Automatic annotation (TrEMBL):
Full protein name: Uncharacterized protein
One Pfam family in the UniProt entry: DUF6272
Taxonomic path: Bacteria, Pseudomonadati, Bacteroidota, Cytophagia, Cytophagales
Species this chain originates from: Raineya orbicola
InterPro entries: DUF6272
Source organism, top-level taxon: Bacteria
Length: 187
């Protein structure tokens, strides 16, 4: 597959493209990414509720990325991808990582199920997971996608790009609408 790197470069020159990271995703990297996002939000976002919501969703997305890199990803040179974009009406947080094909169907089913739930059903599903499933071997209760969906109040978008018979690149994209600051319109 031929890649047009000049197109990638031009896309990254877009003023809406705030952050792009490809590499190891661990505690240190997540904290660095979140500090950058926090700094950018502090200067670019007037509404404190939106700032908090975007920061919390970014935290969930990047932690989810860290928890779900495949077990052998370091051995085969796999790294994660984190992107943050800001537009006049929304923010976009995207993550990407390699997954083995046997994980793909489980991920699709979970996200599709989460996307099918109403706000109330999502809240109940969250309670159900906390009450019955306990913690996974990764130290999570399987709440990552659920928490992201609850906080973003929208569908999680995803894509799998197949690289070979065993491996796919999984991309998760979350859009967070900007909330108008009511104080601006009251005067």
């Amino acid at each position: 597959m031929k890649k047009d790197y000049s197109q990638v470069y031009n896309e990254m020159q877009d003023e809406n493209f705030i952050l792009s990271y490809k590499g190891q995703v661990g505690f240190v990297q997540i904290n660095s990414l979140l500090r950058i996002i926090e700094d950018r939000l502090e200067t670019a976002e007037q509404n404190p509720k939106t700032r908090k919501k975007v920061y919390n969703i970014a935290t969930e997305c990047y932690q989810n990325l860290s928890h779900h890199l495949e077990k052998h990803s370091e051995e085969i040179g796999m790294k994660g991808l984190a992107v943050f974009e800001a537009y006049q009406d929304k923010y976009i947080i995207a993550t990407g990582n390699y997954v083995f094909k046997q994980s793909e169907q489980k991920i699709k089913e979970k996200i599709d199920y989460i996307n099918s739930l109403s706000k109330e059903e999502l809240r109940e599903y969250h309670k159900q997971i906390l009450g019955s499933e306990g913690f996974s071997e990764k130290g999570t209760a399987g709440l990552g996608f659920v928490d992201i969906a609850r906080k973003s109040e929208g569908n999680l978008r995803y894509e799998f790009s197949h690289l070979d018979d065993n491996l796919a690149f999984f991309t998760l994209k979350v859009e967070i609408p900007r909330i108008e600051n009511k104080q601006e319109h009251s005067s």
